[in-house]
């Protein structure tokens, strides 16, 4: 996604908050990383635009893509880096907040200046809709998965929520806030920055208040769900005993109840993360067979990208938006770093204190403490990458990450959504199991070791 840093006509010489001149100074040693676009006329709205890329943001996104690939591929082998079964924080739990945070940062650059809010709103709605539709197609169950060369989805069981849907919702809310909820305050200091975007912070506090009230004040009654029986046409019914208020465990939390009411239990994610807890798996923290006395909720559907938890995901995006404002309104490197590091450190401290006092860090629920810690870490990591890449100019070592960051969505679709493995499996020899993804490398390696010329090959290899 290109980050268009938009300036209005007549603002070429304005000194305060000119993002183009700031990025020009940053990128004076690497002009190939910036591109400039001609003025655009959209729906009768004239913009004088220039386009540039903040290299550190692309590198950050590329690093997150690498992290996503690592935890997806190695998570099954090393369950300790996979998503936490319930409470707690692992390496994989940082991926989603990092992406949401970067969406917010980029929005702070895209919508710095606008001459037509209606046109900007239409574009934002269209982009959010594309993410929602793409998410439904890729994560709604249309593709039946690895080793299953079939497709199609039963609308009675389609999954409505997902990662791309959550990013689309967060993008839409943050974009609407940026387009419509800001005033004409001149930004000269940190307090004036907060005053200019005070309605953004009001939205943050309002969404946080709604999330906390719904999470801890709603009464969760007993509920049941059905699992089809492979041996018969009848489904087995499980009853989960709750009758509590303010519970944040796997079975009786308000987030799950809201999703069952709004989305329907048939439309939730069918491989719940809490199936890896000790109560539900003999191989915890990995998936495994059920223990003899496993609770009734162990096989119940639960969506980690549900309705209530998406409120906190939106807040991550809105906070990232404020970090983007710092880039847009302040040119000095030290000031930017200070305005990033202080709130980031504060968020981490607040998050850990909440966890200590009982509001546990939980990715599945996207708890308040989880939002604080992961957003704070994202802010510190952005500051570190910005210092190395955009201030000191060490870019040769990060060029691969930068390129990956520029095509993050495509990589996500091909790798994380299993599109590439499914395509490779579609080409096979005589039998569907004879494809490149099922190639038995161990067996072929053993055969090679038995070859007569293997010793010669090994000698040549070590000589090289």
UniProtKB/TrEMBL annotation:
Q: Where are the transmembrane segments?
A: 94-112, 124-143, 163-181, 201-219, 311-330, 337-361, 367-389, 409-429
- What Pfam families does this protein map onto? HGSNAT_cat
Residue span(s) of domain Heparan-alpha-glucosaminide N-acetyltransferase catalytic? 53-175
Top-level taxon in the UniProt lineage: Eukaryota
Recite the UniProt keywords alphabetically.
Membrane, Transmembrane, Transmembrane helix
Note the InterPro entries from the entry.
HGSNAT_cat
Q: Does the UniProt entry include the keyword Nucleotidyltransferase?
A: no
Question: What is this protein's record name?
Answer: Heparan-alpha-glucosaminide N-acetyltransferase catalytic domain-containing protein
């Amino acid at each position: 996604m290109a980050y268009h840093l938009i300036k209005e006509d007549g603002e070429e010489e304005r000194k305060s908050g000119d993002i183009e001149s700031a990025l020009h100074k940053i990128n004076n040693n690497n002009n190939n990383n910036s591109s400039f676009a001609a003025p655009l006329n959209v729906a009768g709205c004239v913009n004088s635009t220039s386009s540039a890329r903040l290299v550190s943001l692309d590198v950050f996104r590329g690093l997150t893509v690498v992290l996503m690939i690592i935890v997806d591929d190695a998570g099954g082998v090393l369950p300790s880096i996979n998503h936490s079964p319930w409470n707690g924080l692992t390496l994989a739990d940082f991926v989603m907040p990092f992406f949401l945070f970067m969406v917010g940062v980029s929005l702070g650059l895209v919508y710095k200046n606008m001459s037509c809010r209606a046109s900007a709103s239409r574009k934002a709605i269209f982009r959010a809709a594309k993410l929602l539709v793409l998410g439904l197609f890729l994560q709604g169950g249309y593709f039946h998965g690895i080793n299953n060369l079939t497709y199609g989805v039963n609308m009675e069981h389609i999954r409505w929520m997902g990662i791309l849907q959550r990013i689309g919702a967060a993008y839409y809310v943050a974009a609407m806030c940026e387009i419509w909820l800001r005033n004409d305050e001149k930004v000269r200091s940190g307090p004036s920055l907060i005053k200019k975007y005070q309605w953004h912070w009001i939205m943050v506090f309002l969404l946080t208040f709604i999330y906390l009230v719904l999470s801890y004040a709603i009464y969760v009654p007993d509920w049941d769900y059905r699992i089809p029986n492979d041996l018969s046409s009848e489904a087995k019914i499980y009853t989960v005993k709750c009758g509590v208020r303010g519970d944040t465990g796997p079975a009786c939390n308000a987030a799950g109840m809201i999703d069952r009411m709004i989305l329907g239990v048939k439309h939730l994610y069918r491989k719940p993360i809490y199936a890896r807890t000790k109560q539900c798996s003999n191989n915890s923290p990995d998936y495994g067979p059920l223990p003899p006395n496993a609770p009734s909720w162990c096989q119940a559907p639960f969506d980690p990208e549900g309705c209530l938890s998406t409120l906190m995901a939106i807040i991550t995006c809105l906070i990232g938006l404020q970090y983007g404002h710092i880039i847009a309104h302040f040119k000095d490197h030290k000031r930017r770093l200070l305005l990033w590091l202080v709130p980031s450190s504060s968020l981490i401290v607040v998050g850990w204190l909440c966890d200590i006092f009982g509001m546990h860090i939980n990715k599945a629920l996207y708890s308040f403490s989880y939002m604080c810690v992961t957003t704070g870490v994202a802010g510190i990591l952005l500051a570190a990458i910005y210092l190395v890449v955009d201030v000191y100019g060490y870019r040769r070592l990060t060029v691969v990450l930068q390129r990956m960051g520029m095509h993050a969505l495509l990589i996500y679709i091909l790798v994380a959504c299993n599109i590439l493995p499914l395509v490779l499996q579609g080409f096979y020899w005589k039998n569907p199991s004879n494809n490149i993804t099922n190639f038995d490398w161990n067996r072929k390696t053993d055969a090679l070791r038995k070859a007569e010329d293997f010793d010669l090959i090994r000698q040549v290899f070590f000589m090289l």
